[in-house]
Amino acid sequence: MVLESLLFPMKAEKKPWEMFFIGLLYSTVGIFLALWIFERQSSFVMVFFIVLACVPIVYNTLKWEESKDLELDSPKKILKEHNKAIMVLSFLFLGIIVSGVIWYVFLPAQKTGFLFEQQISTIAEINNKVSPDPTGLATSSSLFFRIFFNNIKVLIFCILFAFIYGAGAVFILTWNATVISAAVGNFIRSKLAPLAGLSAVGKATGYFTLVSAGFLRYAIHGIPEILSYFYGGIAGGIISVAIIKNHFATEKSADILFDVGELLLIAVGFVFIGAILEVFVTPLLF
Question: How far apart are CA 139 and CA 128, in angstroms?
Fold first, then answer.
């Protein structure tokens, strides 16, 4: 039943939570295949294996979303239908993130070093670029614009990859999912040592608090950022499918362009919200 959803997005949209387990499975298989076959290059190979597995559901979803532009007349209804696809993709990539966090925490440090080498390097580069100098509002404003334009660049890559390769945005999304996994996993792992001497109840409470804090730290600004990439990827995918099927030569071309424009505006809006949260909210809590 779950695997059938990979070929029929309409079924997946009825039970989007099933995609969480698909993401969990694909990520776990990709991680262990990468470590088994290409251990020292597993950081990139893992992403490749996960992308390879996710392409069918993502591409079929994009085709399904483009067909809605032809079948529905109301922009409000079309956007509501697109939101169902967003839920499917969100659960799929949440499964990838959770799987990555689990294996980051439980695998030996040497294996983790190989598996997330490039992701950890990327996190360090991002931190160096956006590290604030606590001197006042001007610095916060400068940091906001750096983060905003950096995320806009990622959004543009999602749109272009989806446009050129159809389901190409899945690579950008999977890469970001593994980077988030590394960030959350590193936060949790670095805080585990003080819990060793606690009682069983204390450990259970500590683990729950630690895991929740780890996800919350990056979810506050990460959720709107990832949502923006989903909307951008769907917009690029719709354009790609419409061109392949020559739908821009039909009377529905204006509706397709309007829908794509609406999705892109929503995507930019989420990037803006994410940057505000990352600069002005997350530092207050963590």
Answer: 15
Sign of torsion over alpha carbons 40, 172, 162, 158: negative
Mean pLDDT, the chain, rounded, equals 83
- Length of the chain in terms of residues written: 286
Q: In the block, which residue shows the tokens 């929503």?
A: 266
Q: Are 195 and 203 in contact (CB under 8 A)?
A: yes
What's the confidence (pLDDT) of residue 265? 95
String of DSSP letters for the chain: -TGGGGT-HHHHHHSTTHHHHHHHHHHHHHHHHHHHH-GGGHHHHHHHHHHHHHHHHHHHHHHHHHHHHHH---HHHHHHHHHHHHHHHHHHHHHHHHHHHHHHHHS-HHHHHHHTHHHHHHHHHHHHHH---SS-HHHHHHHHHHHHHHHHHHHHHHHHHHHHHSSTHHHHHHHHHHHHHHHHHHHHHHTSGGGTTS-HHHHHHHHHHHHHHHHHHHHHHHHHHHHHHHHHHHHHHHHHHHHHTTGGGSTTHHHHHHHHHHHHHHHHHHHHHHHHHHHHTHHHH-
In the chain, where are the structural domains located? 3-285
9-24 b/e (C-beta count within 10 Å ≥ 16 → b): beebbeebebbbebbb
Please state the pTM of the whole predicted model: 0.85
Instruction: Give 83-130 pLDDT, tens digit per residue.
Output: 888 888 899 999 999 999 999 988 998 899 899 999 988 888 776 765
Cα separation, 150 vs 43, whole angstroms: 22
Distance between first and last Cα of the chain: 41
Q: With beta carbons less than 8 A apart as the criterion, state whether 49 and 29 touch.
A: yes
From 65, 145, 54, select the one nearest 94 (Cα to Cα).
Answer: 54
